[in-house]
Write a structure and sequence with these properties.
Elements (H helix, E strand, L loop, with lengths): L2 H25 L23 H14 L13 H15 L3 H4 L10
């Protein structure tokens, strides 16, 4: 056998092995579980977008705190109203102690 024949057989074997590997990869079944898509969930809190909605929400948060709209609130921009509303909402949020009085207690006590 000549050197040329040996190289020819090696190249043919390499090509056949590559083709066999490709065929096996294509034919092999994917064993991952099927993906299911659920109903999209709404976000946890819907932020108001219009000025009127923001004023209503801000007024409700202020009433919850026992306050009223400040004087000359009408001159505030929508972004300023949104910022004040979000600030008041954070101020009105319950603390960890109000939610769970034992939250500060260590587990080994």
């Amino acid at each position: 056998m000549t050197r040329r024949q040996v190289w020819g057989i090696a190249v043919a074997a390499f090509a056949a092995g590559g083709a066999l590997g490709f065929t096996v990869a294509v034919v092999q079944e994917d064993e991952t579980p099927p993906v299911t898509v659920g109903v999209p969930q709404p976000t946890a809190s819907q932020l108001q977008t219009t000025r009127a909605e923001l004023v209503r929400a801000w007024t409700a948060e202020l009433e919850h705190a026992g306050k009223e709209l400040p004087e000359a609130w009408e001159v505030l921009t929508t972004d300023e109203i949104r910022g004040r509303y979000l600030h008041q909402r954070m101020v009105n949020a319950p603390s960890a102690e109000e939610i769970d009085p034992d939250m500060g207690r260590r587990a080994d006590e």
